[in-house]
Amino acid sequence: MTLAERATSTSPFRASSTRRRPVLALGALLLAVPLAAVLDLVAGRALSIGETWQALTGGAVDPIAHHLVWRVRLPRVLVALGAGAGLGLAGLILQAALRNPLAAPEVTGVTPGAVLGAVAATGVGLADAASPATVVIAALAGGLGGVGVLWLLTGRARSDPAETAVYGVLVSAALGGLTAVTLLAVPGQLGSVVQWMVGTTEARTWEHWALLWPWTLGWAAVAWLTAGPLMLLRCGDQVAEAAGLVPARARGLVLLCAVALTAGAVAAVGALGFVGLVVPHAALALCGGDLRVALPGAALAGAVAVCGADAVAQLLSRAVTGWGAEHLSIPVGAVTTCVGAAVLLFVARRHAVEP
Amino acid sequence: MTRTALLATGLLAAAALCALCLGTPNIAPSRLTVLAPGGAADGLEAVVVRDVRLPRLLLALVAGACLGAAGLVLQETFRNPLAVPEMLGVSSGAALGVAAPLVLALTLPGWAHPILALAGAALGGATTLLAAGFGRSPSAVLLTGAAVAAALQSALLVLMVMADQLDLQVIFRYLMGSLSGRTWAAWRGVWPWLLATAPLLVLCAPMLAVLRLGDEDATALGLRVRHARLGALAVAVLLIAPVVAVCGPIAWVGFLAPHLARRLRPDADVVRWLPWTVVWGAVITVWADQAARLALKPVETPVGAWTALVGVPLGVALLRGLRTEPKGGPR
């Protein structure tokens, strides 16, 4: 059995089971979102839980606490949720469309492209970290460029998932190298950009959120509407053609969705590692293989994952403050990477071993 | 055969001349005999040639040779022309082993760096090998390797977030692969390792030739495929780690050199490609280093940027060429 054939059977969950469980899982995820959000809201260093609650409910608190909660923490939580949802969705779309359980924004040139776009635009002075809109546009252009290069390279081989994946790895490596060269050319940017290359939710404002939510919501809606074609694509091109779908066209459309979602998320929080790789597997395991349920499931799971990781990162930062490292704040990307890499190796092992 | 040898010798000699004479200050080739170690002359020029340019030239040659040989070993082991050190998590692991103590401000003796690099490279490579089920499927190895490499890269980035601005510059330059400012001390840290690894490399060449036949045939011939892969990976790690410890993960040499060797001798086998890969690896790296030194004088660019500049388009071209050929091992 080839890698591609095994990729189509990603779900350990058989469709023969009751229809109720996926919906229940979706409901549980829906409940988990506010939980994660609240956890993230109260995890910060500066305020106690009571003060946070009072500021939220409009109680009498000092203006600083009010400002912190409403201007710093709330947008941070919302941006984490939005970016997580976008990355989870994008990952599931890529894995289904390329029929490869290891496909993810990081290894298909999407994330590296977006990073390069943002870094290059900042380096030459076109974009400015202070105005998120320009960074979003630059990241989107870069992400589209990255996947566009992949698209041009794969040429006639678009139906061969293994080859597409190899090209994706190559393109990602090349873009990463270009980013490094760009950073060497403008060393002044290095400190701020490195934060963003890991993925961070520090200092996100309402401006970021205002850009992120309409973008993510719109593309998520489009992605959900393509659930049917996507399921056919996951069965392989011959099946899709037999059902009357033009595989190349359908794949182009869903890939565009994935790129747009990733670019939005990357522009908002940077190159969060492993969310787009691991969350889809969790979503499929929880919600079953039906993409009409699994796609919203992946969005919710991604939101919960990133928000939870952000809470963990803030709690860790609190912990290191106790050891006397006041200026060090652990970026959320560090947490998602550590957890994601462990999960990934487990997943890869399950898929890569010949039966 | 002889023409290839002449070409390689000519390129190496020209690069050596370029490495010793050009730069700041420029030195006439006729004066090199006087300035060489043990020569008569003293002063600035002698110091520049003896203590700066000569060790750097030697390091470039040796680093290229090792990376090239390691690339060939890995490509043959996994039957995938793209299975290069940086795609399998080996280079990233080694870099992580070197960068971590730097950021965490641990002062270590010089001999510890190769050992840490070795541990990191072994960790990265072994993780990839295990997660990919010992490399039965060539493409699975590559994807798993990319994922492992991505994980290690993220770990490096997290380290960089913790570093202060000055360390950041140093680490970033190191991660691109750079030979600037390497002296005899670095050379002393590298050569004993390589001397120890060379016989292992020669011993594992015939094994690679058998692996090339495919897992079933190799097993039928009495080769334990899993053990062979682990052994080959160990040799590659031993070749890569000391080099990475000193000059950073110079990208794509491990891809370009074997590819060149195969292109120029398409009818040979692994055992004959190996020496040529060593030669071409040295040629590529030493010329890339000249570009790094002289292209944007007086600013030095990282060597890895130049090798990647050539390597990535070639990798793409190679993949496209593979598609028109029948499926099989690397050609």
TrEMBL record, chain A:
Cellular localisation: Cell membrane
Database matches in PANTHER family: ABC TRANSPORTER PERMEASE PROTEIN MJ0876-RELATED, FERRIC ENTEROBACTIN TRANSPORT SYSTEM PERMEASE PROTEIN
Protein name as annotated: Iron complex transport system permease protein
Membrane-crossing residue ranges in chain numbering: 23-43, 77-98, 110-127, 133-153, 165-190, 210-233, 253-278, 328-348
Species per Swiss-Prot/TrEMBL record: Thermomonospora umbrina
Protein family per UniProt: Belongs to the binding-protein-dependent transport system permease family. FecCD subfamily.
UniProtKB keywords: Cell membrane, Membrane, Transmembrane, Transmembrane helix, Transport
GO molecular function, one term: transmembrane transporter activity
GO BP of this protein: siderophore-iron import into cell
Keyword Nucleotidyltransferase: no
A single Gene Ontology CC term: plasma membrane
InterPro entries: ABC_BtuC-like (IPR037294), ABC_transptr_permease_BtuC (IPR000522)
Membrane topology category: Multi-pass membrane protein
Main location class: membrane
UniProtKB/TrEMBL annotation, chain B:
Subcellular location: Cell membrane
Keywords tagged on the record: Cell membrane, Membrane, Transmembrane, Transmembrane helix, Transport
UniProt cross-references to InterPro entries, sorted A to Z: ABC_BtuC-like (IPR037294), ABC_transptr_permease_BtuC (IPR000522)
Topology class, membrane: Multi-pass membrane protein
Transmembrane annotation, as ranges: 57-75, 87-108, 114-134, 141-163, 190-211, 232-253, 303-322
SUPFAM superfamilies in UniProt: ABC transporter involved in vitamin B12 uptake, BtuC
UniProt cross-references to PANTHER family, sorted A to Z: FE(3+) DICITRATE TRANSPORT SYSTEM PERMEASE PROTEIN FECD-RELATED, FERRIC ENTEROBACTIN TRANSPORT SYSTEM PERMEASE PROTEIN
Domain of life of the source: Bacteria
Organism ancestry: Bacteria, Bacillati, Actinomycetota, Actinomycetes, Streptosporangiales
A Gene Ontology biological process term: siderophore-iron import into cell
Family indicated by similarity: Belongs to the binding-protein-dependent transport system permease family. FecCD subfamily.
Pfam families per record: FecCD
GO cellular component: plasma membrane
Protein known as: Iron complex transport system permease protein
GO molecular function list: transmembrane transporter activity
